[in-house]
Write a structure and sequence with these properties.
Strand content: under 5%
Structural class: mainly alpha
Shape: elongated
Number of helices: 11
Helix content: 55-70%
Distance between the termini: 143 Å
């Protein structure tokens, strides 16, 4: 007698049957997308909605961004080195230019006395020395600047002589100053004489007043305190007060203010050396 087969009860699911292995990717168990990178849980936690810090969708994106940053840094370093190289070149060029200027100034000082004695006429020999190594426009410009500078020097020299009554008086005053003024005082005087035309005249008038006083006294003191006050005038009490007026005198407005210039010169004549030269 054969064994009876019991039919399945209606509504009962069929028994589960294990399916054979499949190679379909969709049927593979979900793995960890960070496998193989040895990422810590802290790093994994930074991935939100599939993007690291909300920016990178994958580690490849991170690597691409890192490469861009490295390229940018490399380009920046390269540009910096290039700029440093350009700076060195510019410094070398400036050094060469300064060397040329210094050499030309030396030549100018050499030929200037002869130029002045020659009636401010530039001889062929002078021109050759002045323009050595120069051609064209650069040569013409050097000659023009020299002549213009010489004219200005002549004008200032004549003005200086006029203040003291001539060349001989000026030279005598210079000799006295070298013997009776300290080195520091001489430096201040020289700086003023080489300053603005107004400052130059005032400095010469001041020194001449000291020189004339020394001649009258029959002495050549190292420091003359200018104690002879003119009625209605007072000497400058300190350099702050003095330079306040000096700055005005040398300004465009002060150059037009002849009354102020006259008053300033008069006060300078009776101001002690200690104030003028910074001892107080």
């Amino acid at each position: 007698m054969s064994e009876a087969i019991t039919p399945p009860v209606e509504g009962t699911p069929p028994p589960a049957v294990d399916a054979p292995p499949s190679g379909l990717p969709s049927e593979q168990p979900a793995g960890d997308v960070y496998d193989g990178f040895n990422l810590s849980d802290d790093v994994k936690a930074k991935f939100k909605d599939g993007k690291l810090n909300g920016r990178f969708g994958s580690l490849d994106d991170v690597l691409v961004k890192l490469k861009e940053a490295e390229d940018f840094k490399s380009a920046t370093i390269s540009e910096q080195k290039k700029l440093e190289g350009n700076t060195q070149v510019q410094q070398e060029q400036l050094k060469q230019e300064q060397t040329k200027v210094d050499a030309q100034n030396t030549v100018i000082q050499e030929i200037l006395p002869s130029f002045m004695e020659n009636g401010m006429t530039l001889t062929a020999e002078m021109e050759e020395k002045l323009t050595v190594g120069l051609t064209g426009t650069e040569k013409e410009l050097a000659i023009y600047k020299f002549r213009d500078g010489a004219r200005n020097l002549a004008d200032r020299t004549n003005s200086a002589y006029a203040v003291v009554g001539g060349k001989e008086n000026y030279q005598s005053m210079q000799v006295w100053a070298k013997e009776n003024l300290s080195v520091e005082h001489q430096k201040v005087f020289t700086a003023d004489v080489n300053g603005t035309p107004e400052a130059s005249i005032i400095a010469i008038e001041w020194l001449n007043s000291k020189y004339q006083t020394a001649l009258k006294d029959g002495s050549a003191p190292r420091r003359i305190e200018g104690s002879h006050h003119t009625e209605g005038l007072r000497p400058y009490a300190d350099r702050k007060e003095l330079y306040k007026d000096k700055d005005y005198i040398e300004s465009p407005a002060g150059r037009r203010d002849t009354a102020a210039q006259k008053q300033y010169r008069a006060r300078m004549k009776i101001t002690p050396d200690a104030v003028i030269f910074g001892n107080r």
